[in-house]
Design goal:
The complex is a heterodimer. By secondary structure, chain A is an all-alpha fold. Chain A is about 40% helix and about 0% strand. Chain A contains 8 helices and 1 strand; from the N terminus they run H-H-E-H-H-H-H-H-H. Chain B has one domain: Orthogonal Bundle (Cytochrome Bc1 Complex, Chain D, domain 2). In chain B, strands 6-5-8 form a 3-stranded mixed β-sheet. Chain B has a two-stranded antiparallel ribbon with strand order 1-2. Chain B has a two-stranded antiparallel sheet with strand order 3-4. By secondary structure, chain B is mainly α. Classes of the chains: A mainly alpha, B mainly alpha. Chains A and B meet through helix 1, helix 2, strand 1 and helix 3 of A and helix 1, helix 7, helix 8, strand 3 and helix 10 of B.
């Protein structure tokens, strides 16, 4: 999937691979896409149609289709997302790893079938290995087993880890990882707790 | 994405007495699936669907045997392997579910609301006729090579729209279909994810829907698969037979061309 990214041949690469007769492009598809989205979804539970409205980051990353971005565009996305990160006013970035483990295990949250009043999970294990003893982990993201042993537990590691969970687009443009703080998926306290799961020397992640 | 829980999880964890490498885990899940395959309750849906296909039903009391699924009125054999396709009478690309609703309305005299009333069964007494009919028609393509055409301009347009939708990132989690289905060899929890942008991945996935879902006690169609993926993607609710549903079906079905169709299957 990671091929050189060229703005002027967007869409052509996949078309060639699959063998379609003429190349589509995003400009041509845009009105059709908008119409199709408008007529194909209904609001349900907590998921309104506003969820289909893209922000700038989503729009740019949609165009990239998994290919590497030109460095200046990647830097632009990262700067814009960096500006969204709100660090806790009390200056404490690390919470309780036991709560963090529960949040990392929990898959519910923000789906139209979920209770909007209940706190969302982060579902970290869907994509990452974390604790050494949980074997049902996914592989969409890198293994975070022993994360704290690699990064230490100092002020820089805490600030980076909290910020990365809050808005990973600030560090890696068009990453697959959700922006848990910026998009209001997790609360400040929940992000502190997941940061603890990763960094606390007593956490099962670091055993 | 939901926490992955089901019979396979228990089965796998039971094997965890020694250090369990990822490959071993996948092997054991494959074995579990092979055991499941020996007796497939999907047959019950296929039989009920075959019966529904022949029954005189609806306000006009006619059967669906006059319904053209693309290969001529009443021809079921091999029809699913060539869907979705453009239908001149509807002037639209239709997948099987959309075409069945079309025939129920135009031929049997149901209203569209009646035809679509119960698209997904609940595993208990509320069985879905559409799921049963879909299971029956799909079963009549077992062993048939996938051969979805893009010759008509509207077919090509649907494919392109499907491809654009596949990469469309939005919602609270910034997910697109491609987030989970754009790379080889990835998993959510222990569930392996097909890369639907490749022929190999699309073939493995598309040829095994519809499927009986053990965890739900229900037969599920490809449109259900899309509907539930969008739920997990944190999007609003996908409308049955909508342009998005048909375009994404077209994208994956066409990418699966050349594979031998092998459903209804059985899944965890």
């Amino acid at each position: 999937m990671r091929r050189p990214f060229r703005w002027f041949v967007l869409g052509l690469g996949t078309c060639v691979a699959i063998g379609c007769t003429t190349a589509g492009n995003d400009t041509e598809n845009a009105p059709r896409l908008a119409t199709a989205l408008d007529t194909s979804f209904i609001p349900s539970g907590q998921a309104g149609l506003d969820r289909l409205q893209q922000d700038d980051t989503q729009r740019t990353c949609t165009k990239a289709r998994g290919r590497a971005l030109p460095p200046e565009i990647a830097a632009q996305i990262e700067r814009a997302n960096q500006a969204t990160i709100r660090y806790p006013a009390d200056g404490k970035l690390v919470g309780d790893w036991k709560n963090g483990e529960r949040i990392a295990q929990e898959g519910r949250g923000k789906q139209f079938s979920d209770n909007a009043d209940a706190p969302s999970g982060a579902n970290c294990y869907a994509c990452h290995r974390l604790s050494g003893t949980e074997l049902a982990f996914g592989t969409l993201g890198p293994s975070l087993y022993r994360y704290g042993k690699l990064h230490g537990n100092g002020a820089d590691a805490q600030r980076y880890t909290y910020g990365k969970i809050y808005n990973p687009e600030a560090f890696a443009a068009c990453t697959s990882m959700p922006r848990f703080g910026h998009k209001g998926i997790l609360t400040e306290q929940q992000i502190k707790d997941v940061t603890a799961l990763l960094l606390d020397p007593a956490s099962p992640v670091n055993q | 994405m939901n926490t992955w829980r089901g019979p396979a999880a228990l089965f796998t964890l039971a094997l965890a007495s020694s250090a369990l490498a990822q490959d071993t885990t996948s092997d054991e899940i494959a074995k579990y699936r092979a055991v499941l395959q020996e007796g497939n309750p999907a047959e019950l849906w296929e039989l009920r669907g075959a019966d529904l296909w022949q029954q005189k039903r609806g306000p006009r009391q006619v059967s669906l045997q006059g319904c053209d699924l693309g290969l001529g009125a009443g021809v079921v054999k091999g029809a699913y392997a060539q869907l979705p396709r453009y239908f001149p009478d509807a002037d639209r690309v239709q997948d099987l579910e959309t075409r069945l609703v079309w025939c129920m309305v135009r031929q049997q005299g149901y209203t569209e609301a009646e035809a679509k009333r119960n698209p997904f069964g609940d595993g208990n007494e509320h069985k879905s006729d559409l799921e049963a009919l879909t299971a029956y028609v799909a079963s009549e393509s077992r062993g048939v090579k996938m051969d979805v055409s893009l010759r008509h301009p509207k077919e090509l347009e649907a494919y392109r729209l499907g491809e654009a939708l596949f990469f469309f990132r939005a919602g609270t989690h910034d997910f697109a279909c491609a987030t989970c289905h754009g790379e080889d060899g990835k998993r959510i929890r222990l569930q392996e994810l097909p890369n639907l942008t490749t022929a190999n991945g699309a073939q493995k996935a598309y040829t095994t829907w519809p499927a009986y879902r053990v965890s739900q006690g229900e037969l599920r169609t490809f449109e259900w698969r899309l509907y539930d993926c969008f739920r997990q993607q944190r999007f609003p609710e996908l409308v049955l037979d909508s342009d998005v549903a048909i375009a994404l079906t077209m994208y994956v079905a066409r990418n699966a061309n050349g594979a031998s169709f092998d459903a209804p299957a059985i899944k965890r």
